[in-house]
Specification:
Layout: H1 2-6, E1 15-16, E2 25-35, E3 41-51, E4 59-61, E5 70-73, E6 82-85, E7 88-91, E8 97-106, E9 116-120, E10 123-127, E11 147-156, E12 162-165, E13 168-174, E14 179-190, E15 197-200, E16 203-210, E17 216-223, H2 232-249, E18 257-263, E19 270-271, E20 276-280, H3 293-308, E21 317-318, H4 324-342, H5 345-364, E22 376-377, H6 386-419, E23 423-424, H7 426-437, H8 446-449, E24 455-463, E25 468-476, E26 491-499, E27 510-514, E28 518-524, E29 530-534, E30 543-546, H9 550-559, H10 563-584, H11 590-600, H12 607-614, H13 619-624, H14 631-648, H15 650-661, H16 669-688, H17 693-703, H18 707-718, H19 724-736, H20 740-751, H21 758-765, H22 776-787, H23 790-793, H24 799-812, H25 816-821, H26 834-848, H27 855-865
Parallel strand pairs: 2-11, 17-18, 18-20, 21-23, 24-30
Antiparallel strand pairs: 1-22, 2-3, 3-8, 4-7, 5-8, 6-7, 9-10, 10-15, 11-14, 12-15, 13-14, 16-17, 19-20, 24-25, 25-28, 26-27, 26-29
The structure holds (3S)-3,7-diaminoheptanoic acid and zinc ion.
Length: 866
């Protein structure tokens, strides 16, 4: 942590994309020898190094917290040939090819950062992306240095009976003193960030998959014995992903083994290490009693995501970390498409857009805005963002829309063929798409370099005399930090015009390519007044502003044949209503109530879609539409609309509830949809103030045969003033006290509560014996969840801000990556009134003034002050 301690005094250096230079030394082969022990692990590394180019520079091996115990060059200890430059080991080498051996001692159980080799629940495991490998051994720790690895591990056999690494197991056996060893070889060239090892006492759910060319693959998911029954869903998702990638992308798996290990303490969701994926256990373990339908979807989506990385990330990796979206945006697009194919594509698209709007749009309009290919960073761990991942996926999706599935597939085939075994760039990807399709993507590249969410103004004018309709589009890309002036981007908009009377689409859907700042599109043969359906399927990650009336939005919410556009029309109607209510203080709920009634009563719609469509936009999304966020007024307006919807449509909610509640647990898209609608209906019944709502909620909670129903009811109870509330929370805790993942839900449900005592409850929960700073899931479940509770986090007293900043500082001492991820809500100060903005800034300043800050937190806090 030497660097970290200097951060407050001298800001950490800024790394620029334009400064990229190829590596000076390559390391084609590496042998690692681990003498594993939780308190003291010895790591010996033997690197074959090759000079790359005609320079005379020394070999630079990155290290972080490492002290060399021994260094040998071509087998000899040459003390005068090497030196330390800060954390980096420099070695002067006379020739162009040498063998370097180093030895270090590390302490996994003292590693609270969870980067490098660390201990979790009695096992040893690794996390190397992006720069954790340098905490294990000295190495050129950058993604464009690709090596073949041989890994030998030795460990106590009783404590660590399972020894895993990348590739295939090539040897093993017993040693003296109760120890044993295993050797693994990975024939594929890979960068350091894909290295992994696990030493553990776990058991495997084993299965197999035969690739389409007939090669058998042994699959194993490693967990604690009592968790084995919870791995079936992940295993099914893994096999489905393997088949899907063959079918949709023509990509086959390339080794004889594929292992997944679940760990309780993990900074992220999961990690795609070559053939040894390591997962946060929340994305592996699922059974009906402990995991919700959302959790099941998360497990399948993340298993697929990490598996898909084997091609989009591992076989073709990133040249440097500025190219992160090359693998992440593409892989998110791939996992989204996979999930859409497994269930309801319409609902999946709605969920993906909701995530983008909740996580990425605020980022894109705030002080941390960056393009999907950033230009600079202090700490690359801060760039695993919704922009890189989710906007990155939207950019790939636009290519898919513009090129069509066949040309897109030709482009991806060309990309994989051309760059297999290489460290590539975003530019390589776009060039492959361009070469394979013949489509000019020159201007499209702006999506990689410009930050900010484009705003599109769309207005439609009907000229009945000529039977024409004129669609005028205007584009504005807002300024973002470091990018004051923007160029218009190419925006693919799927558009349809509906006849007001006939309800028919005129001439089918069109793909309109908006290329400039202003464009007019003429539609012919429009005899009746047309209603505009635009950005159907959310074909571009933009904000579309239209002047459509409430009546037109209601029409679309009832009739549009594009499910996303239909959902969107309802959302827009709700947003207009709520923003209007906040602005005028005179709510007019009529149009929303009628539109919701129409949707709830439409027997042609499936339950999952109805549940999504009738949900009110979140308080933060409403805030995003306002010049100055007024958290209390938004909350009051939204609750008033919820209450009136509950009361006016009480019979409909009761009918929906009755229809769905007899349903016994089964995991399939239809049953999931019924469960979702059931809890949405329960929420409205509670909002209506119906006297029996508490009894119904408590009954749902108590009698549930699955976590979706139980947690759904608990959420309603947790928001209430009902007598049953405390009992339900206690019952939930007692039932699941030994299950960390479910106790996370217990914390987050209370942190999300709308009740007025939420901040006191949250502060008390931070002192609960089950709260701990060493488990990232637990931190997110309380502190992260609370920071998303717009009303209470933004309490006018500033108490919520102080709570968050206290945790940023406390967590930073242990785990800078997790601490830095807590900061963005404080960076939203520009969106609030001056009093709140001042309080938020004061907390950011307090964080920045603290000595010994990590560079992760320094970068996020200083940029957030703006
Ligand atoms: N590639 C990993 C990212 C882990 C980085 C942690 N700082 C997870 C994923 O996107 O699949
Ligand atoms: Zn990923």
């Amino acid at each position: 942590m030497l660097d970290a301690q200097n951060a407050a005094a001298a800001p950490p250096p800024v790394i620029h994309r334009e400064d990229y230079r190829p590596p000076e030394w390559l390391v084609p082969d590496v042998e690692l020898h681990f003498d594993l022990d939780a308190a003291a692990t010895r790591v010996r590394a033997k690197l074959s190094v090759q000079r790359n180019g005609g320079h005379r520079h020394p070999l630079k091996l990155d290290g972080d917290g490492l002290i060399p115990v021994a260094v040998r060059i071509d087998g000899e200890p040459q003390a005068d040939a090497w030196r330390m430059d800060g954390a980096t080991l420099l070695i002067d080498l006379p020739g162009d090819a040498h063998t370097i051996e180093t030895e270090v001692a590390i302490a996994p159980e003292a590693n609270s950062q969870l980067m490098g080799l660390y201990a979790s629940g009695g096992m040893l495991c690794t996390q190397c992306e992006p720069e954790g490998f340098r905490r294990i051994t000295f190495f050129p720790d950058r993604p464009d240095v690709l090596s073949r690895y041989v890994v030998r591990m030795e460990a106590d056999k009783a404590r660590f009976p399972v020894l895993l690494s990348n590739g295939d197991r090539t040897g093993g056996g017993d040693l003296a003193d109760g120890k044993h060893w295993a050797e693994w070889r990975d024939p594929f060239f890979k960068p350091t960030y894909l290295f992994a090892l696990v030493a553990a006492d776990l058991q495997a759910n084993r299965d197999s998959f035969t690739t389409r060319s007939g090669k058998p693959v042994d699959l194993a998911i490693w967990v604690a014995p009592q968790d084995l029954p919870k791995t079936e869903h992940a295993m099914a998702a893994l096999k489905a992903s393997m088949a899907w990638d063959e079918k949709v992308y023509g990509r086959e798996y390339d080794l004889g083994e594929f292992n997944i290990v679940a760990v309780a303490d993990f900074n992220f969701g999961a990690m795609e290490n070559k053939s040894l994926n390591i997962f946060n256990s929340r994305y592996i373990l699922a059974d009906p009693d402990t995991a919700t339908d959302v959790d099941y979807d998360g497990v399948a989506g993340v298993v697929a995501h990490e598996y898909f990385h084997n091609w989009s990330g591992n076989r073709v990796t990133c040249r440097d970390w500025f190219q992160l979206s090359l693998k992440e945006g593409f892989t998110v697009f791939r996992d989204q498409s996979f999930s859409a194919d497994q269930g309801s594509a319409a609902v999946k698209r709605i969920e993906d857009v909701r995530t983008l709007r909740a996580a990425q749009f605020p980022e894109d309009s705030g002080p941390l805005a960056h393009p999907i290919r950033p230009e600079s960073y202090m700490e690359i761990s801060n760039f695993y963002t919704a922009t890189i991942y989710n906007k990155g996926a939207e950019v790939i999706r636009m290519l898919h829309t513009m090129l069509g599935p066949d040309k897109f597939r030709a482009g991806s085939d060309l990309y994989f063929d051309r760059h297999d075994g290489q460290a590539a760039t975003c530019e390589d990807f776009v060039t492959a798409m361009e070469d394979a399709s013949g489509v000019d993507l020159g201007q499209f590249r702006l999506w990689y370099s410009q930050a900010g969410t484009p705003r599109i103004k769309a207005s439609l004018v009907h000229e009945p005399a000529g039977g024409q309709a004129r669609l005028t589009l205007e584009q504005m890309v807002p300024p973002t930090p470091g990018q004051p002036d923007k160029q218009p981007m190419p925006v693919p908009l799927r558009v349809a015009l509906y006849g007001e009377v006939t309800g028919q689409i005129f001439g089918g859907e069109r793909l309109v390519m908006l290329a400039g700042a202003h464009q007019e599109i003429l539609f012919e043969g429009i005899g009746e007044r047309p209603i505009l359906s635009i950005n159907r399927g959310f074909s571009a990650p933009v904000i579309v502003e239209t002047d459509r009336s409430s009546a037109d939005l209601a029409f679309l919410s009832a009739q549009d044949n594009d499910p996303f556009a239909r959902y969107e029309a309802m959302q827009q109607l709700m947003v207009n209503t709520l923003v209007g209510a906040v602005a005028t203080g005179k709510p007019d709920h009529r149009a929303v109530i009628d539109a919701v009634r129409e949707t709830v009563c439409n027997s042609a719609l499936d339950a999952a879609f109805i549940a999504e469509a009738v949900l009110l936009p979140s308080e933060s999304f409403i805030g995003d539409q306002m010049a100055v966020v007024d958290p209390d007024a938004i909350h009051a307006a939204r609750e008033a609309l919820r209450q009136e919807l509950g009361q006016e449509l009480e019979d409909e909610w009761r009918a929906s509830y009755a229809k769905t509640h007899a349903n016994r647990y089964d995991y399939n898209p239809a049953a999931k949809g019924l469960r979702r609608l059931k809890t949405v209906a329960l929420g409205y019944m509670a909002a209506s103030g119906a006297e029996d709502a508490s009894v119904i909620a408590f009954r749902q909670f108590r009698d549930a045969d699955n976590m979706t129903d139980r947690q759904g009811a608990l959420g309603t109870l947790a928001n209430s003033a009902w007598a049953e509330r405390a009992e339900a929370l206690q019952m939930f805790y007692d039932r699941y006290r030994d299950n960390g993942l479910v106790i996370d839900k217990w914390f987050s449900t209370q942190a999300f509560s709308t009740r007025d005592d939420t901040i006191e409850v949250v502060e008390a929960l931070a002192r609960h014996p089950d709260f701990t700073l060493t488990n990232p899931n637990r931190i997110r479940s309380l502190v992260g969840a609370f920071s998303m509770n717009q009303k209470h986090f933004n309490a006018a007293s500033g108490r919520g801000y102080r709570f968050l900043a206290d945790f940023v500082l406390a967590v930073d001492k242990l785990n800078p990556q997790t601490a830095a991820k807590l900061i963005p809500p404080l960076g939203r100060w520009r969106r609030f009134d001056t009093a709140r903005a001042g309080l938020m800034r004061a907390e950011l300043e307090r964080v920045l003034a603290t000595p010994g800050l990590s560079k992760d937190v320094f970068e996020q806090a200083s940029k957030s002050l703006g």
